[in-house]
């Protein structure tokens, strides 16, 4: 379909608006993957990626703090269709960014990206079976309007313009510098400085050992501990596979192996939490100095995988603790002082620089407003179908990755399912599809995850249901069967409209 083609029923005014078969929102890891799947399956179909920022990469372009890296192995965080060929399994941010950008360039996806286009509103019209998408040019404020048959949100669920920082008492008294990892200054000089990193999650455990090489000392200040495990930076078996097998075969085997291990560990943690607590403690005892207070600093109040496990490559955090470069303090902040942070215990931590690795803010679908036939959609009153579509919202899909495994494992499956869905509509001549919720299905939180950033915002997100297909499963192998091989037709999905079936090859 060209920019002058229009769907039946469009007004003369609407005929001047560019129309696309699919609009993808976001040019990060998910968006580039979605574009690859779409153009591979439907080479004649038109699409554009609307990206609010000025670069490809999403998270991996935005975050620039020292040591930024994957918190999943790259054989599962990488795309199914493009083998990860770097020796490192836990990769640094720049390597991941290069992987995403190279994927986009080699497939010609970069030519379809419209940078600086922040989507603010998308409205579905049942009369024309099209989405009208309003975007704002970030450089000029100009409003851009496009229409599309299908809308695919790949913007994740983080707010990209600001991170979460608590209201710290006395912050104005502090003479040093306060930095949030999401707005890391390029010229920050921490050499020979005393650094306090506030937080205990993946960002904090990455920053502490990375900054320790240049800082005078780094203190990781946490209110409560997180489960932290060491993981080899390189996957020895994967590298052996690559030496003796074709690249795609080696990659596929490693991806299957690592996905199986991730699912197995998660299931063990859920079913046998006390056993896994003991096993994690045994490993940490080996990695930490003799007599280290593991109970205080490394033993959370919750069970393993009630929140995400933190992985550290080659035990870098534990090594930094053994060498005296990093200290962990578990306490509550009373207030900031002129020279540092006063704790509830009465201790004062001296600091030249404080890094607030205190988390992220959630923002569904990049903050855009969704509407159907003139009525704005309150996401809190929708229910997620298979964790990738919304009840009552036609021709719309989104990517939300796993919380207990690699994001891309789920993203790839969602993209495959969307292609199967579009293929079914093409074959039958349908113009739209919409999940219709069952009133007998009980509501549950969309993300059943105890992390602070989830608890702060989950009420504004869609709900999940108490049973399939409304239940958001966190099991890759279950989803593998459902998304890749399961039936498209079910009691929850309604297909409407009629048009001549079109060719998958030409898109018309």
Provide the descriptors you would attach to this structure in a database record.
globular; disordered N terminus; 9-stranded mixed beta sheet; 508 residues; 2 domains; FAD/NAD(P)-binding domain; alpha/beta; single chain; 5-stranded parallel beta sheet; 27 strands; 13 helices
The CATH class assignment of the largest domain is: Alpha Beta
Report, as a whole number of angstroms, the end-to-end distance.
7 Å
CATH topology of the largest domain: FAD/NAD(P)-binding domain
User: How would you classify the helix and strand content by structural class?
Assistant: alpha/beta
Q: Can you count the helices?
A: 13
How confident overall, as mean pLDDT? 91
CATH architecture call of the largest domain: 3-Layer(bba) Sandwich
| Helical content band | 25-40%
- Could you give me the name of the CATH homologous superfamily of the largest domain? FAD/NAD(P)-binding domain
Portion of residues in beta strands equals 15-25%
Could you tell me the number of beta strands? 27
Low-confidence stretches: 1-14
Gyration radius, in Å: 24 Å
Keywords: Cell membrane, FAD, Flavoprotein, Membrane, Monooxygenase, NADP, Oxidoreductase
Catalytic activity: ethionamide + NADPH + O2 + H(+) = ethionamide S-oxide + NADP(+) + H2O
Cofactor: FAD
GO cellular component, one term: plasma membrane
Short characterization:
The chain is of the alpha/beta class and 508 residues long.
Your description of this structure?
The protein is of the alpha/beta class and 508 residues long. The protein has 2 domains: 14-160 and 361-437 and 474-496, FAD/NAD(P)-binding domain (3-Layer(bba) Sandwich); 165-236 and 273-358, FAD/NAD(P)-binding domain. It is built from 13 helices and 27 strands. The strands form 8 sheets. Strands 1, 2, 3, 4, 5, 6, 19, 20 and 23 form a 9-stranded mixed sheet that branches. A 5-stranded parallel sheet has the order 8-17-9-10-13. Strands 14-15-16 form a 3-stranded antiparallel sheet, with no helix packed on it. Mean pLDDT is 91; it is low at 1-14.
């Amino acid at each position: 379909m060209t920019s002058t083609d229009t769907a039946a029923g469009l007004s003369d005014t609407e005929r001047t608006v560019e129309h696309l078969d699919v609009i993808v929102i976001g040019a990060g890891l998910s968006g580039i993957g979605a574009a690859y799947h779409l153009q591979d399956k439907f080479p004649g179909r038109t699409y554009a990626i609307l990206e609010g920022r000025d670069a490809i990469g999403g998270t991996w372009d935005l975050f620039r703090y020292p040591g930024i890296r994957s918190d999943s192995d790259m054989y599962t965080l990488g795309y199914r269709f493009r083998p990860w060929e770097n020796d490192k399994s836990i990769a640094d941010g720049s390597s991941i960014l290069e992987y995403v950008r190279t994927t986009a360039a080699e497939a010609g996806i970069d030519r379809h990206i419209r940078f600086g286009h922040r989507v603010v509103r998308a409205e579905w019209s049942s009369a024309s079976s099209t989405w009208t998408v309003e975007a704002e040019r970030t450089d000029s404020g100009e409003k851009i309007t496009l229409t599309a048959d299908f809308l695919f949100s790949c913007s994740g669920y983080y707010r990209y313009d600001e991170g979460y920082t608590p209201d710290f008492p006395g912050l104005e008294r502090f003479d040093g510098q306060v930095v949030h990892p999401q707005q890391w200054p390029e010229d920050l000089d921490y050499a020979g400085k005393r650094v306090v990193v506030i937080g205990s999650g993946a960002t904090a455990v990455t920053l502490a050992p990375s900054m320790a090489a240049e800082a005078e000392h780094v203190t990781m200040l946490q209110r409560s501990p997180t489960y932290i495990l060491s993981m080899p930076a390189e996957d020895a078996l994967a590298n052996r596979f690559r030496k003796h097998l074709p690249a795609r075969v080696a990659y596929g085997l490693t991806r299957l192996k690592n996905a199986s291990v991730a699912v197995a560990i998660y299931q063990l943690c859920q079913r046998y939490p006390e056993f896994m607590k003991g096993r994690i403690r045994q490993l940490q005892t080996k990695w930490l100095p003799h007599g280290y207070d593991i109970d205080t600093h490394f033993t959370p109040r919750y069970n393993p995988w009630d929140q995400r496990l933190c992985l550290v490559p080659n035990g870098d955090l534990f090594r930094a603790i053994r060498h005296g470069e990093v200290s962990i303090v578990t306490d509550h902040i009373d207030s900031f002082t002129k020279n540092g942070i006063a704790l509830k215990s009465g201790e004062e931590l001296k600091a030249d620089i404080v890094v607030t690795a205190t988390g992220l803010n959630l923002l569904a679908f990049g903050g855009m407003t969704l509407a159907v036939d003139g009525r704005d959609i309150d996401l809190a009153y929708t229910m997620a179908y298979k964790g990738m579509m919304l009840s009552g919202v036609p021709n719309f899909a989104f990517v939300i990755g796993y919380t207990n495994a690699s994001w891309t494992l789920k993203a790839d499956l969602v993209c495959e399912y969307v292609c199967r869905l579009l293929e079914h509509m093409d074959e039958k001549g349908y113009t739209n599809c919409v999940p219709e919720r069952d009133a007998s299905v009980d509501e549950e939180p969309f993300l059943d995850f105890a992390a602070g950033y989830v608890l702060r915002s989950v009420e504004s997100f869609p709900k999940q249901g108490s049973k399939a297909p409304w239940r958001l499963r966190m099991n890759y192998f279950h989803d593998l069967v459902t998304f890749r091989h399961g039936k498209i037709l079910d009691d929850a999905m309604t297909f409407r409209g009629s048009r001549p079936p079109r060719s998958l090859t030409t898109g018309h």
